UniProtKB/TrEMBL annotation:
It comes from Candolleomyces aberdarensis. GO terms for cellular component: cytoplasm; membrane. PROSITE patterns: DAGK (PS50146). Residues 152-291 form the DAGKc domain. GO terms for molecular function: lipid kinase activity; phosphotransferase activity, alcohol group as acceptor. This is DAGKc domain-containing protein.
Length: 731
């Protein structure tokens, strides 16, 4: 909302000295378009805007707000006066431009039942008033708004806008609401629109540390990414000392709820918090998994609570309602959480926790005690205190578990106050554990979840803990940390499920394969031999983006002819380019081997040399006939060796149906990303070495050669190596 003030019709007498009292000064201006005057007046209670509407000819009396400074207005008739007040907290900026002789007042009109908070900008030319008076008054107002309250004015902000987070409205909200508020407040902005998962992580690792705050226009996942990127900075303590401020544009927005309150999480109010908020300290949690350390700022969940988060990713478009849907679905399925849980407990008395929380909340606080951050703190992250060999003071949770929720809050979502006695800097992890109970008790626990009343349920175990440990007892299950899915890039290797030739059934060969790149007879038996995939980590494939795949035959090589085992290796080069991009996001070299019909299948497996002796990470699973059928469907692959046992044994000569080569390749990628979720893969080169068969337990192993290179391989339950490869990640 903008008003253009074209001229004043009043004179302020006398001119004020530099020691003028703000509350004794009133600045009148006039709106020519609506024929009424405005008078700005600061008091210790509020900032007032008086509207004097001209009706007919006459002379208006002097303002009578306060007697100290007289303002005379010569009008053309009687007037109607109305006044509205602006709370100091909502007043953004009062700026006087001495060269243009204009005064600009910016503030937020508070939200009501039907509307969110709205930006109002009043700007006008000041006439017949000593500019020094206006300049001194405007500067005095700004000092009272900011420095006197321990807040820096006109902050320098780094803003990350995630176009894919939550309900996908981040860019629109920023352009329409957030950016105008920041600019009206005089903030200095650097805006980065994230293009891929890990973009913000990489950006802040080398960040210049002269920003006053980092702003995220997204959900909680982008905050998680930024914090972990700052932890990788060369001076992580100093980097993490930069204030972090969320603008809620995701489906959970837990941090925004906790910082500014459940009643003030509209976008404009959150932007106001960025401008006027005072820095506060909060605990961060260290998570170690697979030998690597990451940070969490809000929550970690296992069992039902992790399932309701991660299994409703496809419902982000409905906002935080997806969590309640996921909870109800989880109560129906009611799967226990197969983990072994140990804790280093600091407290378990709920009454004592509640008292400590309320005492802290009621303790008097002087706003001036909160000051802007200093840059004196620096150095490496503190060392971990509770190492795996630490046994003293740990207790095991013996009962079967439905879910574990750990972290701080109180809110993790608008409908769920998970940690009602959480304090931001008490040095503890709040642990909420629900033992396996009945569906009826879980349904009753939903009532009051938004206000934290389920904290008092007798069956809910609640602890203050120094640390906790979890050991999975099953290969299945979810582990959710701060909702770490800030964007929607396609997962590594997932492009293999797209861009297949859609041949009609009558165009396929007898074995179910197509002959698009096949050599002539007798080389008609096809096997997946290996390949190489290269990702542009600055330009990832995005789910929902229109993408073109273009391929060509790179090489066709004859091998084994001299040994009477003739084969033809055909390598395709395939580029995947999104619409509007000039370079491909992904380049794949895909190699098939074509064998002559009637060849004899090798009975003994090949010995694969140079397999690493140590394993840093691994994953084990058993591909069943259902697994192969589903993957064949995804790949639009009707090759009989994956589906038809009689064909595979009687025609091809193998003892059982074969696991797809690309399935094993994808599982090697998934094994690394499962163990190292923040890894950014740049390249994967692999080769099939032996057939892998259905219904055999397969183990995907990996070991780090250096900080960015991992050797990976797949081995079956008889020790046969079916595939090996090398994965290169970004530093």
């Amino acid at each position: 909302m903008n008003f253009e003030l074209t001229r004043t019709v009043a004179t302020i007498l006398p001119a004020c000295s530099s020691a003028m009292s703000l509350s004794d000064t009133r600045i009148p201006v006039r709106l020519s378009s609506s024929h009424h005057n405005l008078t700005f007046h600061w008091t210790d209670k509020a900032f007032y805007v008086l509207h004097d509407v001209r009706k007919a000819e006459g002379t208006a009396p002097s303002s009578t707000l306060r007697p100290a400074l007289t303002v005379s207005c010569q009008l053309e008739g009687p007037r109607h006066t109305r006044t509205h007040d602006v709370l100091h907290h909502n007043l953004l900026r009062v700026h006087f431009d001495s060269e243009a002789n204009t005064l600009t007042v910016s503030y937020l009109k508070p939200k009501n039942k039907n509307k969110h908070a709205q930006l109002v900008v009043l700007k006008g030319v000041v006439h017949d008033v000593d500019p020094k008076v206006v300049e001194t008054w405007a500067e005095g107002v700004m000092k009272a708004l900011y420095e006197d309250n321990g807040v820096k004015r006109c902050r320098r902000l780094l803003v990350f806008v995630n176009p894919h987070g939550g309900v996908g409205k981040g860019v629109k909200l920023f352009k329409k609401v957030v950016e105008p508020v920041f600019l009206a407040s005089g903030c200095d902005l650097t805006v980065v629109q994230t293009e891929r998962r890990g973009h913000a992580f990489d950006y802040v690792k080398t960040l210049s540390l002269d920003y006053d705050a980092i702003v995220t226009v997204s959900g909680d996942g982008l905050i998680h990414e930024v914090l972990n990127g700052l932890a990788q900075h060369e001076d992580p303590i100093k980097a993490l000392n930069i204030s972090l401020a969320p603008i809620p544009a995701g489906s959970g927005n837990g941090l925004a709820l906790n910082l500014i309150g459940i009643e003030h999480t509209d976008t404009a109010s959150a932007a106001l918090n960025v401008i006027k908020g005072r820095p506060m300290k909060t605990d961060l949690f260290s998570i170690t998994q697979g030998g690597k350390r990451s940070l969490s700022f809000m929550s970690q969940s296992l069992g039902l609570m992790a399932d309701l988060d991660l299994d409703t990713e496809h419902l982000r478009w409905i906002g935080d309602t997806r969590f309640m849907y996921g909870l109800l679905r989880g109560i129906i399925t009611f799967n226990p959480c197969p983990i072994q849980l140990s804790m280093k407990v600091a407290g378990l008395d709920k009454d004592a926790m509640a008292k400590a929380f309320h005492d802290k909340k009621l303790a008097p606080q002087d706003p001036k005690d909160s000051i802007e951050r200093t840059n004196s703190a620096s150095g490496a992250l503190p060392s971990l205190q509770y190492l795996p060999d630490d046994k003293e003071g740990w207790i095991d949770f013996e009962d079967p578990i439905l879910f574990v929720y750990a972290g701080q809050g109180p809110y993790v979502g608008r409908d769920y106050m998970a940690f009602p006695v959480s304090l931001p800097d008490d040095g503890y992890i709040d642990l909420s554990i629900m033992p396996l109970t009945t569906r009826g008790e879980m349904l009753s626990a939903i009532d009051g979840a938004e206000t934290g009343e389920n904290f008092w349920l007798s069956q809910l175990q609640y602890y203050k803990a120094h640390a906790y440990r979890v050991k999975p007892l099953s290969k299945k299950g979810n582990f959710s940390v701060d909702e770490p899915k800030p964007g929607m890039p396609l997962g590594y290797g997932h492009h293999l499920a797209f861009f297949h030739a859609r041949k009609a059934e009558h165009q396929l060969r007898e074995d179910g394969t197509d002959e698009e790149i096949s050599p002539p007879a007798p080389f008609l038996t096809r096997m997946w031999a290996g390949g190489k995939i290269t990702w542009d980590i600055d330009n990832p494939l995005i789910s929902g983006a229109k993408t073109t795949s273009s391929g060509s035959v790179l090489t066709a090589l004859k091998k084994g002819f001299e040994k009477n085992r003739p084969m033809v290796f055909v390598t395709q080069k395939i580029e995947f380019t999104m619409e509007g991009k000039s370079t491909p996001s992904l380049v794949e070299e895909r190699q098939h081997v074509y064998l002559a019909e009637g060849r004899v299948v090798r009975k003994e497996p090949r010995l694969v040399p140079d397999i690493p002796a140590s394993v840093d990470f691994s994953f084990t699973y058993k591909p069943t006939p259902v697994t192969l059928f589903r993957f064949s469907s995804l790949m639009f692959n009707a090759h009989h060796i994956h589906l038809d046992k009689d064909y595979t044994t009687n025609v091809e000569g193998y003892p059982e149906r074969l696991v797809h080569g690309p399935l094993t390749a994808m599982m090697l990628l998934e094994t690394l990303t499962f163990n190292y979720p923040m890894a950014h893969i740049k390249e994967f080169e692999y080769r099939a070495t032996n057939p892998m068969y259905v219904d055999r337990e397969l183990t995907l192993n990996g070991t780090w050669v250096d900080e960015t290179t991992a050797k990976v391989w797949c081995v079956d339950d008889e020790g046969v190596v079916g595939m090996r490869g090398t994965i290169k990640t970004a530093a």
